[in-house]
Sequence to fold (170 residues):
Amino acid sequence: MSTHLTLVQGDITQQSVDAIVNAANSSLLGGGGVDGAIHRRGGPEILDACRDLRASHYGKGLPTGQAVATTAGRLDARWVIHTVGPRYSADTDRSDLLASCYRASLRVADELGARTVAFPAVSAGIYGWPMDDAARIAVETVRGTDTAVEEVRFVLFDERAYEAFTAQLG
Ligand code: AR6
Fold:
């Protein structure tokens, strides 16, 4: 069955979906941007679960390009899937790592049985990835991934990001 790709301009923490993807960092202990917003609105249960994951599996941190799930706390979702995007580099092509974030998150979603998954524009904020390229990689990768997820909803914070994703969905 094919996955339906949808776009929303808004705040990902307000979405009602099975899983919300977080653009985290490898510490899994929170940060700014969408990560900060998810922990703020989702409450301390998410951080507790992240600490447990660090203790049990990721003492050295979650590697870039990988994904792992926790409770979604008070968010209107069952799970948060934390993925670590690469920092943008003008010298080194890290596109494969960014694509890996989407593939790994969808793999985790499939393992959980999630049918609706919301993604932010991973790496396109604090990590500096140019929005048009981030949107291209996101859309191409999701389209090219075999998954049972029925809806992938890209939730773009501002108009610029929304337009970049709209252009890719064409
Ligand atoms: N809903 C949807 N999108 C959002 C929201 C929100 N509530 N808030 C921000 N964005 P960023 P990164 C957009 O910086 O580039 C954190 O400190 C934002 O406008 O959140 O992957 C982590 O802990 C941008 O388009 O993530 C890491 O250290 C997109 O989400 C680092 O930032 C991603 O921006 C990760 O940086």
